[in-house]
User: Fold this.
Amino acid sequence: MTPDNIDRIRTMHRAYYHHSIDGLPDGWTQLVMDFLHAMDGIGDLTDSVSIRFERCPDGLRAFVFPEMSRWHPEQMLTLRIAQRELYGLSQQTCEICGNPGAMEGNRVFCIGHAGGVATKAAREQALYDEVHLLFPKVHGKAIDLNVPDHLFHLLSTTLRAILKLVDNEDAIGKVLITRVEVDDEALYVRARFIDLEATDMYLQMSVNEMIADLEALSDVATRKHREGGSNAS
Assistant:
């Protein structure tokens, strides 16, 4: 969740706030607040109740750890109803905007956001297919082309330029991009060079320079995007 939504929940439901809320999507903010409101309606249980949220493959679940001997049957019934509602509604609420949605795999999107996700996935797959000769055959999550929109053009243009240079120098398989990842809003790209001859030193220098330029330009683009600049995307 965004810091604003986290602060909103923490302020309104400080007694029951748990850090597990922080990793939930923004579209489920109201679902969490409605659940905590139901907990407030049960009565003053703040001394004996701990609430933890967990996003499961089939929806959002709330786990409540009370001292059971202090609960009345009516309170337990209210809890069970609130848990079922949270779980059921999380399967029908877009995790991005909070509008009605549907499950797609283990995620929930409305019509508008489902299309956007599908388009991004297709775009990333197309780029991967185009430049996959730059990547190790086994790389796992080290190669993640799911970068923010304002960085995708920079990344794709640079990877294409590197592949063209490597191909022209007959160095396919000798220059491998081993990491493409966004961490804390910064884009990181790393390369490994295999069996390059001394005469290929300029190739290594050229690739390193293109990567350095990419990371520097991505920092600028991210700053503009954060500030709302007109050239951010």
Confidence is low (pLDDT under 50) at residues 229-233. The radius of gyration is 24 Å.
